[in-house]
Structure prediction request, 361 residues.
Amino acid sequence: MRRRLLAWAAALAITLSLLPATAMAAGAVLTVKTPATIPKAGESFLITVDISDNPGIGALQFTLAFDQSAMVCTDAHLSEAFRGAVSATNEETPTGAIVAAASSDAMTDNGTVATFQFTAKKDIRDFGFALEEVKLNTPAHIAIPYTVNFAQTAADSAAQTPPSGGQSQSAPEGETGAVPLFPDAVGHWGEEWIVKAAQRGLFSGDERGSFHPDANISRGDYVLVLWRMAGKPAPKQPAPFADVMADDYYADAVAWAYENGYVNGKGSGFAPKDSLTRQEAMKILFGYAGSPSGMELMFTADYDAGFADSAQIAAWAKAAMYWAYYNGIISGTGAKTLGPTVAASRAQLAKILVGYLEKRN
Prediction:
């Protein structure tokens, strides 16, 4: 994974330290969320820093300080909404893991600002995290007052497929500790990716602790995963679909995806419980990524001739499928097939999305 330059963070820190603080904007609340269960030696766990009452940040910086004799930070990344025009992360500073970002436009989202992945070096008695060197400013260089809270992580309503093989259902809210080892994923070809996806907070298990790796993922569940990946941004309007209720666990995700143009309706509604094909999944991810067509366009004719099922790729999905293949986000379902009309499974999407994030970072 490409490491961001510490020099960027240092430059941002210098810039932030010179900003005036005479006029004070409305305050913000930063919340450090820790697992409900203290991890043991060798276990991996996630820490997030969330913001609420965000008045509109133009620049931010903070260090998540921790006991480096007890744990190691293996990854730190800003949520998409807080990357700004210039951003930097570094998990290996002497004082802790640092994140910084600056933008000429206000970053107004509430929710997760940054996610940190840790591995315990030994059994941990208490976390002992602290936020240090915090600087928040508006785009007009006005310092934003803040408070810091600490809370245990509560699991999202999980998008899951029940053991009977029916459509995905929401699981009740509950507390979660270290990333679970899903019994039905042990030894599965996608185990590594499933664990990584769970560590990033994209997927979770059902109430029985199962992942159902080979179950088809539904349209509602897929946009829920992308919404989590984006940092759970609040939609501006409810989803305009009669089959998406306000209290559905995927309602905000569908509304966000629709207003950003990543998804459209299907039939007379959104059909959130319908499964989706590999080409549909890649079309949505392609839109989420900004539709970044590039060098793969030079190989369109070669791909058309080389893949036996290229004629099955819908015209609206071809650019997305070839982009994903060229960039190594998907691989073929066979030596000469891409499987565009094959239903996408939970394990496949875990691998695809983790691979996309690793390549992007």
